[in-house]
Each structure stands twice: as structure tokens, then as C-alpha cells.
Amino acid sequence: MISKDIPSVASNPRRLAPRVVPRLPKIPWNRLMEVTGYLAALLIVWEAAVGFFSIPSYLLPPPSSVALALNEGIQSGVYLYNLTITMTEVIVGFGIGALLGLLLGIGIATVAAIERVLYPYVIAIQTVPKVAIAPLMIVWFGFGLQSKIIIVAMASMFPVLVNTIAGLKAADEDRISLVRALCGSGIDVLRFVQIPSALPYIFAGLNTALVLAVISAIVGEFVGARHGIGVLIMQANVSLDVAGVFALLVVLALSGVCLTMILRAVERRICFWSGRSTR
User: Fold this and answer.
1) Whole domain around residue 233: which residue ranges?
2) Predicted confidence (pLDDT) per residue in 179-196, tens digit
3) Is residue 29 part of a domain?
4) What are all long-range contacts of 129-137, with beta carbons under 8 Å and residues at least 24 apart?
5) End-to-end alpha-carbon separation of the chain, Å?
6) Could you tell me what percent of the chain has a pLDDT over 70?
7) Is residue 46 part of a domain?
8) % of the chain surpassing 90 pLDDT
9) Neighbours of 234 (CB within 10 A)
10) What angle is formed at CA 257 by the lines to CA 22 and CA 209, rounded to 5 degrees?
11) Is the pTM of the predicted complex or chain greater than 0.85?
């Protein structure tokens, strides 16, 4: 007989429920220390080589000069303002291009008529170099953000499109047959089988598209823009401020690394079940 002083499990089932403690992601300190050590060694060798061989600063500035130029640009606020503009072009253009690539990829992979009609034109547009298209975008849409966003979107669309098609067509036929045997519609097959199977492929395309988005934004600013990191690079190059060019490249590289880390964190969150997700 159960004593009245002891609460029953049925009356309070939470007593046996395991306590879930959220686990924080482990920081790879060993890997970080290794990368930092390699970078520090490279900078020391670079600084020593420039002084030892008396290389002119307009050819190869020492890391100390690059650090001074970087600090000056950050303190003045010029780098932050222009980086905001460039990152706006990258993020908005990347988002539009990724969405178009995803939708077109789903349409091409699931509807044969769309593949016959649209896919050749998509290939033809992609084979045209973006450097050749950029002047047309400047003429049509001006020197503002619109032209650069369109250039970035065009560059970002194709990797997502190709990987979406490959991922959808690589879905397990047995799973598709099972859903159809259970009277599932084409939407059910797409939702429960093809899209989950294609997610690692899609994120692989997104990672490639993100790199192309940054490159395309800078190319568009080289062709014609009023503000942005590309404009600052052109100005520093004309004035032979090579240290400033290196400082801007550092800012651009760090921004690209941050965007890539954010995208891969999202990928690990969504594709936690797949061992094929990119690392």
C-alpha cells in the first residue's frame, strides 16, 4: 500500500522527467591557438623580411603600417560607414539570389516543362562574366545600391540553383515510393523527402554563393559606385596607399569570415541530422 506522505508518480509525473540542461557549443581553443600562432609567425616573418630586404612601402608595406592604417580608418569611422554599405549589398543581394535559386531549382527539378524552357536561359546568363554585366547594371539602375544588389543576386543565384536541383534529384527513391504508397501527393514528397534530403546540398550552394556575393559586390563598386569598400580600395590604389589597401582587404576578409561562420552555424542548427553538412 502506498503511503499518503509519499506523492505518487501519477499525480506528479514531472518528478521522473529528466532535467534538460542546455549544452553550450565547445570552443576549439586548441585550433584557435594553432591558427593564431601561425598568423603571428607569418606577421613576424613579413615584418622582418620587409625591413631586411628594404622593400619600399608602396610595393609591400610592413604589417605595422597596415595596422596603423586599419586603426586610423576604424577610428575615423570611414571603414565602418563604407563596410555597412557593402555588407548591405552583399546580404540583400545574397538573400534575393538564394531565394530565386531555391525556387527555380525546385521548379526545374519537379516540373519537366520548366526545365526544358528555363534552364538553358539560366545557363546562358550564368556563363556571361559579371564584369561584363556590371557596366550595364550601372547604366540601367545608377550608381546606388540597386545596381550592386542585382549584380550580387545574379552571382548568388546559380550555385544555389544547381545544388538545389542536384539535392532534390538525389532523394532516396524508396522513401519517395513509401510516401506515394501512403497516398501522399507531390507536395508531400517534396516536403517530407526531397527537401530534407536536399538541405546539405542547398547549404553547400549557399556557402559558395556567399563567397561570390562578396566578390560581386566589390566588382560592382569597382565599376561604378559612390560609397563602399570597393570605392575605398580604388581610391587607396590610385594614391599608392598600399597599406590602406591591405587594411581594407583585412576588413573585407574578416567580414566574409563572419558571414560564413553565421551561415555554417545556421546549417549546423538545421542539418544536425546529416553527416554530409559542410564543416
Assistant:
1) 66-270
2) 777 777 777 777 777 888
3) no
4) 130/154, 130/155, 130/216, 130/219, 131/219, 131/223, 134/219, 134/220, 134/222, 134/223, 134/224, 135/223, 135/224, 137/220
5) 57
6) 86
7) no
8) 24
9) 16
10) 100
11) no
Q: How many domains does the chain have?
A: 1
Does position 94 have pLDDT exceeding 90, yes or no?
A: yes
d(CA 209, CA 267): 14
> CB–CB of 167/198 below 8 Å?
yes
pLDDT digits (tens, 9 = 90+) for 222-268: 888 888 898 999 988 888 888 889 999 999 999 998 999 999 888 88
Q: Measured between alpha carbons, how far is 186 from 188 in angstroms, rounded to an integer? A: 5
Instruction: Name, in order, each residue with C-beta under 8 angstroms of 256's C-beta and a sequence gap of 6 or more.
Output: 210, 211, 214
- Residue 82 inside a domain? The answer is yes
Residue 136 has a CB neighbour count (10 Å cut-off) of 13
Amino acid type, 168: L
Name the residue with cell 534529384: 169
In a domain, 6, yes or no: no
Which grid cell sits at 7?
Answer: 506523492
Is residue 104 within 8 Å of 157, Cβ to Cβ? yes
Q: Which amino acid is at 222?
A: F
Average pLDDT of the chain, as a whole number: 81
- Which domain CATH number covers 97? 1.10.3720.10
Q: Give the cell for residue 216.
A: 560581386
